[in-house]
Input
Amino acid sequence: MGLEDLKLLRPNEIMQIASQRALTSAELLPLASRSFSVPIAMLEHAKGKNEANKRAYVEMAYSLFRALDEIEDASKELNNEEKRRVINGLAVIVGEVTRREPNCKGIEDIIEGNDFRSIIKRAMDGAVDEEKRVFLKHFGKGVVLRDLYEIGREENGKEIKEAMDYCIQGMAHGMTKFLGRPIQTSDELKEYCYHVAGRIGSGFLNKIVELRDRDETGRPIILRGDLAEKFGEYLQETNIAKNIYTDYKEGRRFLPDEWRRRDVAFETMMDLNEKGIGPEDAREKMFKKILDFQEKNFRDSVEYVESIPQHLNGYRAFCLISLITAQKTLEHLRVSGAEKVFSGEESATKIQYGLKHILDFSYNISCFEDGMHANNWLSNYRREPDSFSFKPVEYEMWAWRWFPGSDLKNK
Output
């Protein structure tokens, strides 16, 4: 089975299905984030023969995480105090489902209850576009909560539910703490990224691997939590760097105030109509700070992917897609420059050549000869990431060398 066999519905196709019937958990996520749904699919599509299929767990968890994200990102229809109530309310409900024993009645009471219905209504009121509104509407039908409840019937199901709940509570805490409160220091930025992303790496993804996968001796696989956290934080920081314009326009301030030039007000720095040495230099210095801040976690992120056992092909492909996409996004931002990124130009904040080659390479290096060449490539990539281009033609000049004796060169 090759990458060409991977079939994923596009958001417009899912929107059509949503007009005819309730969506499944697998169909929900692409409406909120195709960037998450594609690598998650690799957990099944690239799964090694001795690797557990973790796709359903991760898909379900990320739908829960995205529901919180959509509330945090909601339009001005929800003020910050309302967002806090809705975020905390959803976290409470997830906690209730987590504690509910699988043979007990009551899951439908939670889904049909006034608390959950009210949360979904307010979240939909603040949805930033139609796809997100439909995502929240179908999330509100309870399919994800039912799936979470049913995990309790599986072996170690209680521990998986508790891992999900641990991360949901942490996300809710991090989001509500900084709602309407500009981040002041780099330590606060680290704290925010830990709660909304780093904690997912150590508290959920590592836990799923531990509970579902075994090494050659039959023992649970324990991955380093500190590296998983750095990886999650790296991905979140990348999102902050590329969404400077959107976050500011929607009232979110993740750029630490301590990085701001003191003689230029934050609003002046963010106003692209403000020209001259002061505002432009302030944007340039802030831009350099956020990019340099990101790079500190890059090597730890690569080390985390390197630490994944060779036979976990699917999990490595899942992580590798996100790692490469983040690094190439940061590389593209740096080339685009502060003025274009601060103005939110799509050509400056989005990789223009697409993700096809990143997907192809991540899948193939993880699966070819059972992934035996992956760590060698990662070692080279950690030293010189910019030397590995995924642009058409440039990619084809080097990638095939990592698959000796294969026909990948001709594909």
Remarks:
- The chain has a mean pLDDT of 93.
- The first helix runs from residue 11 to 18.
- The radius of gyration is 21 Å.
